[in-house]
Each structure stands twice: as C-alpha cells, then as structure tokens.
C-alpha cells in the first residue's frame, strides 16, 4: 500500500501564497510564489506578489528583481511601478544613472511602456485598420466610379490616407523590432546579496574599488571566468 502525493496547481500555490502573505508569513508566501515560477508559469501578478513578499521579508534586491520582471510583462501596471519606486528610495546606494536628464528619463519611460506583446497588438490593430480603410476606399471608388484628380495635390490625393496608414504600420513594426533588439542586447543585473565587492581587476587579490549594496542595478559589459565587468 502506498500513498500518492498530489501535485499542487499554480492556482492553489497562488492562493496559498496570498493566504500566507495575509497572515504575515512573508517568507512562506515567497516560497509558494517561487514554486509557481519553478513550474515555468509566469505572470505579472506572481512577480508582483513575490516582490511584495520579499520586500516585507527585508530582501529589497529580490523585491526589485521581481518588480522589474513584472513590469516587463505588464509595463502599464501602476501598482508595480509605484512599489518599485518606493523600494528604490529605501536603498543604501544612491546612484544617479548616466543620461538621467529630464528628456532622457521621459524617453526611458516611453519605451518602457512598450512590451513585446503590446507592440505586437498595436501593430496588429494598425494593420487591420489600414486594410479596413483600403477596402472602404475601394468600395466607395466602385460606387462613385472613376473621378478626375486622383493624384491631385490640391485635394490632398486619395492615396494620402493609405500612405499615412502604411507609414503607421511600418513605424509599429520598426518599434517592435527596436524594442526586441534593445532588450536582447541589454544585460542588467541587480545585487540580491547584502553587499558585493567591486574590484579593479578580476581577481580576489585585487584592491576593492567600492562596494555595491543590495538592490543596486548595474549594467554588465562583459564576463570573464565568473567575473563580471560593470
């Protein structure tokens, strides 16, 4: 006679995590959410709740990591962005990134709103609107019959709306490609340990340049034998 352990579903784990969080058992809640991710089931809600659990557990590095991952899946989630900004104000390291001027920040905020899924949806919508307008124009042209001045510059030309819509389609497609390429080339890391020593060269005997503390984000330039150049 033997007993068979029933595998918990992601929904059950999510519910258990929420219950543990409500009871103030933040580390247990984090374990339940991590179990969901271990099943290769990811969503912005899971990462958001996991970030909250880690923050309540006093682990800001992992909290920021999961808030960032949540925003990758849903860039328009204002709750996640608010929590992320709040946690950053509590960090020990106060580092101002390069290109942190007003317009640079606005550009970063704009492109941060474009998830890959959002770009695809926007492109699809523009694509169908373009062909809907094209079909409507062709139908009206058949009803009205041929008219002079099809390319008349004084009347703007009947092709002009098509060209504008085609331009929007192309811009949307280029945006999708640009966002995907930029994210593929981006190699960012977040310190999830209490501190990390940064040395002048990739060797333990080298002098320490400075110390990064938990939650600090850095850009990885290259890797060599387990060492990272930032």
Question: Could you walk me through the main structural features you see in this protein, from its secondary elements to its overall organization?
Answer:
This protein is mainly alpha-helical and 230 residues long. The chain folds into three domains: 10-90, Serine Threonine Protein Phosphatase 5, Tetratricopeptide repeat; 116-185; 188-229, no CATH class. The chain has helices spanning 10-22, 26-38, 44-56, 60-73, 78-89, 102-112, 116-144, 160-185, and strands at residues 188-190, 195-199, 208-213, 217-219, 222-224, 227-229. A two-stranded antiparallel ribbon has the order 1-4. Helix 2 (26-38) packs antiparallel against helix 3.
Nearest-angstrom radius of gyration?
Answer: 25 Å
The largest pleated sheet is described as: 2 strands, antiparallel
In CATH, the architecture of the largest domain is: Alpha Horseshoe
CATH classification class of the largest domain: Mainly Alpha
- Span between termini: 57 Å
Question: How many extended strands?
Answer: 6
How many domain units?
3
| Helix amount | 55-70%
Overall average pLDDT: 79
Low-confidence residue ranges: 149-156
- The CATH topology of the largest domain is Serine Threonine Protein Phosphatase 5, Tetratricopeptide repeat
Going by CATH, the homologous superfamily of the largest domain would be: Tetratricopeptide repeat domain
Number of alpha- plus pi-helical segments: 8
Proportion of strand residues: 5-15%
């Amino acid at each position: 006679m033997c007993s068979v352990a029933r595998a918990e579903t992601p929904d059950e784990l999510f519910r258990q995590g929420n219950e543990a969080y409500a009871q103030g058992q933040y580390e247990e809640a984090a374990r339940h959410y991590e179990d969901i991710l271990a099943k290769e089931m990811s969503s912005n809600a899971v990462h958001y709740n996991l970030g909250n659990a880690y923050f309540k557990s006093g682990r800001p590095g992992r909290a920021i990591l999961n808030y960032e991952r949540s925003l990758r899946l849903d860039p328009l989630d204002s709750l996640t962005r608010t929590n992320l900004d709040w946690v950053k104000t509590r960090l020990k390291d106060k580092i101002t990134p390069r290109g942190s001027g007003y317009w640079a920040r606005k550009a970063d905020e704009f492109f941060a709103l474009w998830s890959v899924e959002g770009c695809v949806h926007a492109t699809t919508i523009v694509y169908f609107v373009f062909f809907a307008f094209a079909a409507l124009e062709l139908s009206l042209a058949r009803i009205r019959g041929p008219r002079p001045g099809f390319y008349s510059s004084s009347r703007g030309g009947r092709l002009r709306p098509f060209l504008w819509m085609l331009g929007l389609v192309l811009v949307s497609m280029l945006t999708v490609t640009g966002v995907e390429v930029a994210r593929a080339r981006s190699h960012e890391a977040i310190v999830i340990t209490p501190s990390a020593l940064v040395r002048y060269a990739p060797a333990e005997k080298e002098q320490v340049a400075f110390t990064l503390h938990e939650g600090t984000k850095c850009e990885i330039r290259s890797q060599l034998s387990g060492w990272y150049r930032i």
